[in-house]
Amino acid sequence: MSEIKNTHDYLVAKETKQKATPGIKRAFVIVGLFMMFQQITGINIPFYYGPVVIAKLHIFGSTGGTAISSAVFGIEASSILAIINVLATLIGFRLIDSYGRRSLALLGYSGMAFFDVLGAVLYLSHIDIGLLIGFAGFIIFFAFGVGGTGWIIQGEYFPTQYRGLFASLIAVVDWISNFAIIELFPVMDLKIGLGYTMAVFAVLSIMAVVIFFYIMPKTKGKSVEEINDIFENNTLATVRNASMSGYSDNSKTDKKQ
Fold it and tell me: Membrane spanning segments where (predicted)?
């Protein structure tokens, strides 16, 4: 029993002393931002509020019908969007190893911004179906380029001994961001309307493209150890270039020794 207790005390002490390195903190910043932008760009709006929003558009089955028929159509349309989400996600998982996490993420956020703008312009031009087109395109690009990527890089950016802790922290960031945007959407819809709300989401998606273009490393074909070295030996401003060139600040020092 004493031997088991000593082993337990040793492991607890070791885990307690273990602190996150600068590289781990840099990885957390990137993954945390990625998961935050996943949510605040509005992906859950069509799923949480879709039936209500779509029922108000008065298109197809909702035109001239009763309140019940409009609600049913809204649910049907939202179900179709959910199916699109699943299919596009499966496509994304087939492409992610071929094209890389960074490339798909940037393409995903760019496509999301485009369809947000398209939906906003059409809706503000009184073409109500434009909003549904915007939702569908937005979901497709989110699902294959952004949705799964955040969870994949979370597993790749952190060494095994840190993964459990930081996975929990990332989940907290994800759910807080989700809660914030879900609570804000009804206010935005009331104050500025659906069209301009989509425009806001487009701006946030463009911000994501710019931010991750500059700080998100290219990890295709790299091991967890190689990715960790990139984060440890570079700043947030240089991890992208280091990941693309295979160069890190320490590699230069190593060559001189």
Answer: 27-47, 67-92, 104-123, 129-153, 165-188, 194-215
Residue 10, pLDDT > 60, answer no
C-alpha to C-alpha distance for 239 and 244, rounded to whole angstroms = 9
Closest of 169, 155, 167, 125 to residue 224, by C-alpha: 155
Distance CA 110, CA 196 (A): 18
Contact (CB, 8 A) for 53 and 108? no
- Is residue 134 within 8 A of residue 119, CB to CB? The reply is yes
**For residues 206 and 219, what is the distance between their CA atoms, to the nearest angstrom?**
22
26-43+98-241: what fold?
Answer: Growth Hormone; Chain: A; (1.20.1250)
Tokens of 141: 């690009």
- Provide the pLDDT for residue 181: 95
Instruction: Quote the pTM value.
Output: 0.82
End-to-end alpha carbon distance in the chain:
49
Calpha distance 130→196 (Å, rounded): 13
Give pLDDT tens digits for 104-147.
999 999 999 999 999 999 999 999 888 889 999 999 999 989 99
Q: What pLDDT digit, counting tens, does each position of 69-107 carry? A: 555 666 777 778 888 888 888 888 888 778 889 999 999
